[in-house]
Amino acid sequence: MERSKAMSGLDSALKPRLKRRSTFEYVSWVVCILVGIGVLSSVATNPNFKWDVVAKYFTHESILRGLMLTIFLTVASMALGTFLGLGLAIMRASTIKPIAALAGVYITIFRGTPVLVQLIFWFNLSALYPNLSIGIPFTDIGTAIDTNALMGPITAALIGLTLNEAAYMAEIIRGGFSSVGKGQIEAADSLGMSGAMKMRKVIIPQAMPSIIPATGNQVIGMFKGTSLVSVLGVAELLQSAQLIYARTYETIPLLIVASLWYLVMTMLLSYPQSKLERKYSHTSARVPRKARKVTLTAPEGIAR
């Protein structure tokens, strides 16, 4: 009898608590629905939006080419930025003061200046260094590279986005390193692990649950941030829309086309991000939809 009472008590404790809906909540739903219907009706019936033009250019060849270039810049900048950010995070966590200070200065500069300014700076790098020399120091062996020919719009966009993203990823990864318990590091030291092995086998795997969700947010931010490279003349999604409405003078419909593609891609990226956040979340406050039954192994109520 006592055992059955204990089991029923545990089952009731695991059940999610129901919150009684108030009158204010129902009224809020009605108001929100009415406002939403009003906004949608206004947008759908306003002829100035020119939805026929939006439908015409939504899958236009130049728009799709710009979308592909936007995706390329996002993937390439995130991959290179994450790799460089990992190196910066390791340098920042180094016990060698000059190395840690160098990484700190890099992060401070690239996080403290607008990414648009950085993009324009890299695009005009030839004003500072017309030629870059690559060779062996103190010898005549080397070659000169024309910076103006090398630093094209896409190259400048890729370099600017990568270097800026590396600074943010370095802080995200460093925060993940800080989440690893001190006892884990001491245990690795007691096993005689080298610094590289400790980083590879202990710190990085345990820091991933903190790093991955934040990285997902950076991917979405990077996808939208690629619109800034339009100032360099890179024919990404926004620039492709601008080139079209510069000819047709249909500014609003083309901006709607670009906005819809940004919205669609952001929603597509948000789904795997939510899955990763749910998988790697450390919080235990979330109540599961279906609670696992607890089996008692002893009359005293010890759960298995």
From TrEMBL:
PROSITE patterns the UniProt entry points to: ABC_TM1 (PS50928)
Keywords attached to this entry: Amino-acid transport, Cell membrane, Membrane, Transmembrane, Transmembrane helix, Transport
Cell compartment(s), UniProt: Cell membrane
Main location: membrane
Membrane-protein topology: Multi-pass membrane protein
Membrane spanning stretches: 24-43, 63-87, 99-123, 252-271
Keyword Metal-binding in annotation: no
Stretches assigned to the ABC transmembrane type-1 domain: 67-273
Family listed: Belongs to the binding-protein-dependent transport system permease family.
Record protein name field: Polar amino acid transport system permease protein
Organism: Arthrobacter bambusae
